[in-house]
Design brief:
This is GDP-L-fucose synthase. Pfam families: Epimerase. InterPro entries: Epimerase_deHydtase, GDP_fucose/colitose_synth, NAD(P)-bd_dom_sf. There is one protein chain. This protein is an alpha/beta fold. Helix 2 (about 45-55) runs parallel beside helix 4. The termini are far apart. Helix content is about 40%, strand content about 15%.
């Protein structure tokens, strides 16, 4: 392992759920030179601003955790924003990293890059082997482009730019917007509000039958730093020049119905659960094959029950931030 606690490490998206978890992980491991920039200080879709930022800062490592993200409703209602903003963010940061000689970069993708009907569990080799899920295709295409940017700079210029593909993430710092959140924060808020208001029923999108794999963001941060710290030879031996990304997950999944029941328990909601089958389910199942990252020496440590409890505790202490949203 190549740990460099004195390295200048830029965490793009440090205020987001994943970025803030990576900052916490780095600090816990003794990293002392973590570089960050607020959106008000650096607009990542502005190429000149990003170039100037890298010119001012001598960066040794980049964690590219910045992205425009959202759930099914957000992806369906703003597809142009999701593909455009994410393409610009990753292109600007990866190209500037190369131009200013940053030796190591980690790009954080998403399991939505894989075909909608990929064989389960999904191996890294499934990338671009079938049609994407229509509800988040623009976002997925942008994330695939980020992987290919890293691979291309590695092939053409000998860079050491790596990519990790997490399963569905949740935890402290998540977005609990009433309409534009992912499934776990959305359900946590809905069940919490229903209990607080004495409601007898919570309506859940879809049939409840799709199966999903959920990864706590602190596990994701630990995996990200683990992958970044691997010696180049160890990492490259596990991949190929044309397939440089690595799945990150727990290796197990659950149905949305079972997830909803677990969240009802965590939040103390005792009413009825109703599934609205007129709403889209999305991909039927999404379970990642995590044999590659396990072979590289990392496994998740936070189970779903403990993770949901942690996420709910964070939401309760921050719910005022989401009032009116």
């Amino acid at each position: 392992m190549a740990r460099e606690p004195g390295a200048a490490v830029y965490v793009a998206g440090h205020n987001g759920m994943v970025g803030s978890a990576i900052v916490r992980r780095l600090m816990s491991l003794g990293y002392v030179n973590i570089v960050t920039a607020l959106h008000s200080e650096l607009d990542l879709v502005d190429q000149r601003a990003v170039q100037a930022f890298f010119d001012r800062n001598r960066i040794d490592q980049v964690y590219l955790a910045a992205a425009k993200v959202g759930g099914i409703i957000a992806n369906n209602s703003s597809p142009a924003d999701f593909i455009y903003d994410n393409l610009l963010i990753e292109a600007n940061i990866i190209k500037s990293s190369h131009d200013f000689g940053v030796p190591k970069l980690l790009f954080l993708g998403s399991s939505c890059i894989y075909p909608r009907l990929a064989d389960q569990p999904i191996r890294e080799e499934a990338l671009m082997a079938g049609e994407l899920e229509p509800t988040n295709e623009p976002y997925a295409v942008a994330k695939i482009a980020g992987i290919k940017l890293c691979e291309s700079f590695n092939r053409q210029y000998g860079r050491d730019y790596r990519s990790v593909m997490p399963s569905n993430l949740y935890g402290p710092g998540d977005n609990y917007h009433a309409s534009f959140s992912h499934v776990i924060p959305g359900l946590l808020r809905r069940f919490h509000d229903a209990r607080e208001h004495g409601e007898a029923e919570v309506v859940i999108w879809g049939s409840g039958s799709p199966r999903r794999e959920f990864l706590h963001v602190d596990d994701m941060a630990a995996a990200s730093v683990h992958i970044m710290e691997l010696d180049r030879e160890a990492y490259q031996t596990s991949t190929t020049p044309m397939l440089s990304h690595v799945n990150v997950g727990t290796g197990s999944d659950c149905s949305i119905k079972d997830l909803a029941m677990a969240i009802a328990k965590v939040t103390g909601f005792t009413g009825k659960l109703t599934f609205d089958t007129s709403k889209p389910d999305g991909t039927p199942r999404k379970l990642l094959d995590v044999s590659r990252i396990r072979a590289l020496g990392w496994e998740s440590t936070i189970d779903l029950e403990d993770g949901l409890d942690d996420a709910y505790t964070w939401f309760v202490s921050h719910q005022a931030d989401f009032r009116g949203r």
